[in-house]
Write a structure and sequence with these properties.
The protein is mainly α. It is built from 11 helices and 2 strands; from the N terminus they run ααααββααααααα.
Length: 249
């Protein structure tokens, strides 16, 4: 008698479960038929073996007994081989399933937002933007100002609504300044003041603008920027520095 793979797998699992449990798991007709047929086959083999043992009264019966035993050994060996194959396939399938769920869980965690505190404010940030910002800042801190500028500029384009966007824009201006590109630095810092005027770094951005204007010999522009800084952000450390600078002009 031959069984399909699904029927054999059903029979294999049914053999390890109570009859009521197996019926609950394998409800399809093919699985139930495979279990019934397998049980019937085993019962027949047992009955045949018992009959041969009980009736071995002569040489012929003994030979029949030996032949029957050999056939049963072959059948048992064949069934064991099928069981081993099925067990191996089950183990492989279980491993694949476990790996799939492990990978899925890791992917979901990467997409889950995390709570962070930025400039004193607690907010949610997705892992992709967190990683992008951290990578950009790591380049800045390592002294790779060109790479940092490219990474920060890309961050602002991709994550313009991110809670890190104002910081990224501010450090972009600093990355340009570190490369001696004062014009780009001024433009970048002006965007900080324009788009995030209430951000704690806005005052520092204006101070940086004044520094760049001074380096570009635009003294009057620098003076006005410092005066506007004091008016817009009184009481800040940047405003105090602006006052000191104006005394020397």
């Amino acid at each position: 008698m031959k069984f399909t793979k699904s029927a054999l797998m059903a029979a294999l699992f049914a053999a390890t479960l109570p009859l009521s449990a197996s019926a609950g798991i394998f409800d399809d007709e093919e699985a139930r038929k495979a279990i019934t047929d397998l049980k019937a086959k085993v019962s027949k083999l047992e009955a045949d073996l018992k009959n041969l043992i009980d009736t071995k009264t002569d040489k012929s019966a003994t030979l029949d007994l030996i032949a029957g035993q050999d056939q049963m050994r072959e059948e048992i060996s064949r069934l064991r081989g099928q069981v081993e194959i099925l067990l191996n396939e089950i183990q492989v399938a279980q491993k694949r399933q476990k790996d799939f769920y492990t990978d899925l869980d890791a992917r979901i965690k990467k997409l889950e937002p995390r709570q962070v505190t930025i400039d004193g404010q607690t907010t949610s940030v997705n892992m992709d933007e967190q990683n992008a910002y951290d990578n950009a800042m790591a380049q800045f801190k390592s002294g790779d100002y060109k790479g940092a500028a490219n990474a920060l500029q890309d961050f602002v384009k991709r994550f313009g609504a991110s809670a890190y966007a104002s910081n990224a824009q501010y450090w972009l201006g600093n990355a340009y300044y570190a490369q001696g590109d004062c014009k780009s630095a001024i433009t970048a810092q002006q965007l900080v003041v324009k788009n995030w005027p209430d951000n704690p770094k806005a005052a520092d951005a204006m101070l940086n603008i004044a520094s760049c204007q001074t380096e570009l010999k635009a003294v009057n522009n620098a003076k006005k920027t410092l005066q506007d800084l004091i008016k817009a952000y009184p009481g800040t450390a940047a405003a105090a520095t602006a006052k000191e600078r104006l005394k020397g002009k």
